[in-house]
Amino acid sequence: MRVFDIPGFPNPLRVRIVLAEKNLSSQVEFVKVDLPAAEHKQPAFLSINPTGTVPVLQLDDGTYIAECTAITEYLDNLDANPVLTGRTPKQKAIIHMMQKRAESELIDPVGIYFHHATPGLGSALQAYKRPDWEGRTAWGERERGRAIAGMRYFDGVLSQQPYVAGDAFSMPDITVWAGLLFAGFANITIPEECEALKAWRSRIDERPSVKNPA
């Protein structure tokens, strides 16, 4: 298998943590995509993934799988032991519900703020952003507020249970962790009162797959 990504970036890290959790890191070749140079927006990469995002997983038969959730589903089920995406119908439903919330209420708003209300990754990507309309910065700032509200939401969740989807580490924990990492890059800090979220993050930081991802 091959993974097209860039080391250290939030979404690629999500899949690298999955690979480490599933002991699959040695089975993958990584192909670096130069995001600051907008390589992911060029025709060669768009032929692999039309949405122009990383990571992308290439299977040995040539199939390309994009989107972190889809890649996680595939990798987690390879050994018929889906510890990250749920075994029972109830587990699967709760995990996917919280995964959607982790994306829509945290990591996606951080991304919108970072790419549209700040310089983002630099000048090479400016041409691929939304047109420079008058309200773009205000839109980005609103998304910053949504990200902070998302942190408060997950703080409430984690004050009641050890992990985002219940009693066990799973896919949405990886996404929330990556969202907080991204927020740090964008200078969005966790609200001081979010003690449960901060304590959870400290625990996740010490997880072997997070300390040493693929």
Give the structure's gist in a few sentences:
It contains eight helices and four strands, in the order βαβαββαααααα. The radius of gyration is 17 Å and the shape is globular.
Note down, in words, how this protein is organized.
By secondary structure, this protein is α+β, with helices and mostly antiparallel strands. The chain has two domains: 2-77, Glutaredoxin, CATH 3.40.30; 89-207, Glutathione S-transferase Yfyf (Class Pi), Chain A, domain 2, CATH 1.20.1050. Helices cover 50% and strands 7% of the residues. It is built from eight helices and four strands. Helix 1 packs parallel to helix 3 (68-77), helix 4 packs antiparallel against helix 5 (136-158) and helix 5 (136-158) crosses helix 7. The two termini are 13 Å apart. The mean pLDDT is 93.
Topology, pairings included?
Elements: E1 2-5, H1 10-21, E2 29-32, H2 43-46, E3 56-58, E4 64-66, H3 68-77, H4 89-116, H5 136-158, H6 171-185, H7 195-205, H8 208-211
Parallel strand pairs: 1-2
Antiparallel strand pairs: 1-3, 3-4
Helix pairs in contact: 1-3, 1-6, 4-5, 4-6, 5-7
Mean pLDDT: 93
Characterize the largest beta sheet: strand count, sense, and whether it forms a barrel. 4 strands, mixed
- Multimer state: single chain
Number of helices: 8
Number of domains: 2
Low-confidence runs of at least 5 consecutive residues: none
* Strand/helix succession: EHEHEEHHHHHH
Structural class of the secondary elements? Answer: alpha+beta
